[in-house]
Structure formats: C-alpha cells, structure tokens
Amino acid sequence: AKLRGKACTVVFDHAMYTQALRLLQVETDLRRAIEREELCVFYQPIVSLLTGALTGFEALVRWRHPQWGLVSPGEFIPLAEETGLILSLGRWVLHQACDQMRRWQRTLPGTDQLSISVNLSGRQLLQPHLLEQVGEILTDTSLDPQFLRLEITESVLGDYDEAVTILKKLKDLGVDSCIDDFGTGHSSLSRLHRFPIDRLKIDQSFVSQVEHDRESGEIIRTIMSLAQSLHMDVTAEGVETRAQRQLLQSLDCQYAQGFLFSRPLPSAEMEALIQHLPHW
Ligand code: C2E
Ligand code: CA
Ligand code: CA
Ligand code: CA
Fold first, then answer.
1. Residue 133 C-alpha to ligand 4 middle, in angstroms?
2. What are the C-alpha distances in Å from 85 to residues 28, 78, 122, 123, 221?
3. Domain of life, per the record (predicted)?
4. 3 state SS of 261
C-alpha cells in the first residue's frame, strides 16, 4: 500500500483491493500446493566447458497450478519468501532434488559422479536447524554430501555475517556452496575471500549482453580473474548461443548452463536425455 502525507493515510483503491485479494488467493493456493503435489522440480544440465561433459544439474521449482498451468518460480518464490512458506517449500525441493539425484546415480550408468545444485533463499539459509535439516535429507536420500551444492545469491552473503558462518558449517558437513547471480549484488570484494565458497555463478544478464555490449564482456573478464585469484571455479548461466560459449571458453570459464545445452526439463524428460550420456 502507498503511504501518503504526514498522517500516513493508506490509500487503498479498488485495483489494490483486487490485487490484495489475488495475492491472498495465491498464498492460500501456494500453501496447499505442496500437499496437493502441484509443485514439481525441473532439472537443467550444468556442462563442463573444458570437456563438454555433463557435470550435474540445477534444480528449479515449478508450480503446476490447476487453473493457471505451469507457473514459474519468479512468480511465486518472492511471495513464498514474504510469507515464510519458502521454508517448507524449500525443504520439499531440497528433498526432492537430492532423492532424484541419488536415484539417477544408482540407476543410470555414468551418472554416479554428477551433482545437484539447489537454490537456497536467504530466509532458508538463516533459519534455525538448517544444518540438521540438510543432514537429515542427505541421510534419508543417501546422497553423498559431496554431490550437493547450494546456491546462495550474492546479496544474502553481502548482508549477513551469519550466512558465512552457516556456509562454513555446511562445508564441514561436506556440502559446497556457490554464489548465485554474481555481479548483481553488492558484496564487497574485500570480504569475498572469506566466503567458504568454491564457485561463482555469473548472472545471465552479463552473458546475454556479451555479444552486443563491451562492458558485459569486461565484467565477465573481471569476474574470471577475480575467481582465479580466489581459487574459485565459475559457472556461466543463461548461455544461449555458440558465440557466448566460445567467448566464455576463451576466458577459461569452467562450467556453463543455458538453453544452448538444454532447457530445464521435468525429471522423466531429463532422464531420457541423460540415458544417452550427452556431450555438448
Ligand atoms: P536462478 O537461480 O538465477 O536460475 C536461473 C534461471 O535462468 C532459471 O529460471 C532458468 O530456467 C533460467 N535459464 C536457464 N538457462 C537459460 C537461458 O539460456 N536463457 C534464459 N533466458 N534463461 C535461462 P527459473 O527456473 O524461472 O527460475 C527463476 C529464479 O527462481 C531462479 O533464478 C531462482 O532465483 C528462483 N528459484 C527457482 N527454483 C528455486 C527454488 O527451489 N528455491 C529458491 N529459493 N529459489 C528458486
Ligand atoms: Ca541458481
Ligand atoms: Ca540468475
Ligand atoms: Ca538467482
């Protein structure tokens, strides 16, 4: 709601009323989505730029809404974070993704060293008992911790010292982390080396512009040399063209992910794809 004037009158017009009702409806629906098994996880390959081999997947949640069809996380993750629903939703995604990864490792030849990357929101990272939860899920799915990677956005790490402490404990558990959307946040470079992190993920906004805009190229170059001096690997997200891939390869970027290789797919479709042990 907009606040106007000194009296802070809340101006609440009809459009906003409708909007509020809609949000309330979405929240109610989202709350039930897990129980009704409307959420599902899609998987997108992460490819080694050195060898072209599949190295793992990123888990990306989707919502199959009975009326609206497939809803993308950009539409409901912010609401889930605002309402706290992200805690149960995130736990569900983590369990689902670890379980799927372990099943593939067990049943599909050549997949036993592949890893799964799961997005963790700030609120999830800072919740009490996260460590116990992650530990439980790993035990329950019998996935080796070395095959799980958590993706945390740069802004969360920049804002909370606590987050760094938690990542250290996760690392002790054997779980690596990655800074997501790198380049869009505001983490101070002087603190970066203290983050217990072994990978940076270059945001797709830089990758998508790299053929058209010199600055994006410069930013990627800077991130690459920064990562090198910090002994971190880099994944580029949103790689759509061969030209982008070639440029990233020429800069020694280790991993890439994007429509050029594969869109995020439901598990059954991804399984059909990896049965042929793809090389890109
Ligand atoms: P993200 O973590 O930066 O994920 C990458 C997004 O880029 C995904 O969007 C993916 O589908 C999309 N993408 C991948 N390759 C390409 C490409 O070549 N071109 C283009 N244009 N896009 C590409 P998606 O799946 O809609 O997810 C959006 C965001 O929602 C994610 O951004 C992440 O921040 C959040 N998210 C998704 N799943 C989860 C989850 O389980 N938990 C949490 N906390 N956040 C999630
Ligand atoms: Ca991510
Ligand atoms: Ca991103
Ligand atoms: Ca992100």
1. 22
2. 10, 10, 13, 10, 38
3. Bacteria
4. coil
- Give nearest CA residue, ligand 1 atom 2: 119
What is the CB < 6 Å shell around ligand 1? 44, 60-61, 72-74, 77, 90, 93, 119-121, 180-181, 204, 237-240, 257-259, 264
Enumerate residue ranges in the chain where pLDDT < 70.
1-12, 187-188
Of 30, 41, 60, 98, best ligand 1 pocket probe by most atoms within 8 Å of the beta carbon: 60
62 vs 243: CA distance, rounded Å: 30
Tokens representing residue 7 in the block: 């009296």
Ligand nearest to the CA of 120: 1
Q: What is the pLDDT of residues 40-95, one digit of tens each?
A: 999 999 999 999 999 999 999 999 998 889 999 999 999 999 999 999 999 999 99
Rg (CA), the chain: 20
User: Which residue is closest in CA terms to ligand 1's atom 3?
Assistant: 181
Relative orientation angle of helices 242-250 and 214-229, to the nearest 10 degrees: 40
What's the CA gap between 157 and 165, in Å, rounded? 10
Report the distance separating Cα 198 and Cα 58, nearest Å. Answer: 16
Which residue type occupies 275? Q
Q: What distance in Å separates the CA atoms of residue 129 and residue 268, rounded to the nearest whole number?
A: 32
Ligand 4: distance of its center to the CA of 222 in Å?
20
Query: In 3-state terms, what secondary structure has residue 142?
Result: coil
For residues 227 and 189, the answer to whether their CB atoms sit within 8 Å is: no
- Residue 184 is classified by DSSP as S
For residues 38 and 63, is the Cβ–Cβ distance under 8 A?
yes
Strands 176-182 and 115-119, by their bridges, are: unpaired
